[in-house]
Design goal:
about 350 residues; alpha/beta; two-stranded antiparallel ribbon; about 30% helix
Length: about 350
């Protein structure tokens, strides 16, 4: 019996749907195959200090990666957030008065394809001063407790606690940046934040925020734990933007202090929110406050729905899409928030339909 044309057409559609589903199952993750455009080259202003690359003639790494005159920036690097990282790098360079004096220190999982990550950065930023450092996930995996959002449980999310161990001893101060942000001001201003005689880090504080929800009732009901904040005025701060004195961090062995709280968390649940609470336990109330303009955070919404948010009142030097919603994902889904349009100009993703200029 012959089949009707309608039946054959429906059958064809079914075969196509099955083939697409199969391809989607086995395809390489999109993030690995993303192609990025080459960024413009940025040059120093005439008043910038000249950093002599003494080692380049020997075929060694540029000495800017160890220079006290350089602005040192640390970021994590992985395929999942590479698109955000590329935009962040571009924004740092574009708004810097001395872009050639910026040294980038990228931390990547030891299990990641470091060659691919390095090649991706080099292809878009051929003149960038950078180095990629492998981070042993196992060093922190055993300490991670599940949090309210799975993305917060990634071992690389905890790498900021290990910068003093990962970066060379010659790097004495660093600006740590998350990958879901862009700067619209000169990072040298942030890097020059005075840390006083003994402070280890600086970040924008939010002392009007309710500090209690960052820890569980078990924490607050135990006097030996809640007294941690005695004799200091703890305020919330976001760890996605920090100026860190690595010398003082090393001297105080602050990585061990953070790990001790994480070990306690494995035995008694004292917080719910990933890598942030250990930082608050160790540093809250003892940091140098930075103007809020340097971390207009929360633009990714909350950790559950990622709803759109407005800017905090006041001037803006850095836009930070912390929270569940990321601008590149919302733009791709044609469901952007209004402020995602401020991230889009820094997006270096090479689309299939892009025309060469």
């Amino acid at each position: 019996m012959s089949k009707s044309p309608v039946f054959e057409f429906l059958l064809l559609l079914l075969f196509i749907a099955i083939a697409l589903a199969a391809n989607a199952t086995v395809a390489t993750p999109v993030s690995v195959t993303q192609q990025f455009k080459e960024a413009p080259q940025f040059y120093n202003s005439p008043f910038c200090p000249v950093i002599v690359d003494e080692d380049e003639s020997d075929g060694q790494e540029s000495s800017i990666l160890c220079s006290d005159q350089a602005v040192h920036v640390a970021m994590t690097l992985d395929t999942a957030y590479i698109r955000g990282s590329m935009a962040a790098i571009l924004s740092v360079l574009q708004h810097s008065s001395c872009p050639q004096n910026i040294a980038f220190h990228f931390v990547a999982s030891a299990t990641a394809n470091a060659s691919l990550l390095r090649a991706t950065i080099s292809s878009s930023f051929p003149y960038l001063n950078f180095r990629v450092y492998p981070f042993d996930d196992s060093s922190v995996s055993r300490l991670i407790s599940t949090s309210i959002r799975s993305a917060l449980d990634c071992p690389l999310n905890y790498a900021r606690s290990y910068l003093a161990n990962l970066l060379p001893l010659c790097v004495r101060r660093v600006v740590y940046l998350d990958s879901d942000l862009v700067l619209v001001d000169d990072i040298a201003k942030l890097a020059a934040t005075p840390l006083g005689d003994d402070s280890v880090l600086a970040a924008p504080e939010h002392c009007n925020a309710n500090f209690t929800p960052y820890f569980t009732p078990t924490f607050w009901s135990n006097p030996s734990l809640s007294l941690t904040f005695a004799n200091r005025k703890p305020c919330y701060f976001n760890t996605g933007v920090m100026v860190i004195d690595l010398d003082r961090w090393r001297e105080g062995d602050y990585t061990t202090k953070i790990e001790e709280w994480m070990e306690l968390q494995k035995r008694i649940r004292i917080y719910e929110l990933g890598s942030l609470p250990p930082f608050l336990l160790v540093f809250a109330g003892n940091i140098v406050p930075v103007d809020h303009r340097w971390n207009q955070h929360g633009l990714g919404g909350d950790n559950f729905r990622g709803l759109c948010r407005d800017l905090h009142p006041g001037p803006v030097s850095l836009l930070h899409w912390s929270g569940k919603g990321k601008p590149w994902a919302r733009l791709d889904a044609n469901r952007p928030c209004p402020l995602d349009a401020l991230w889009a100009p820094y997006d270096l993703l090479q689309t299939p339909f892009a025309l060469d200029s």
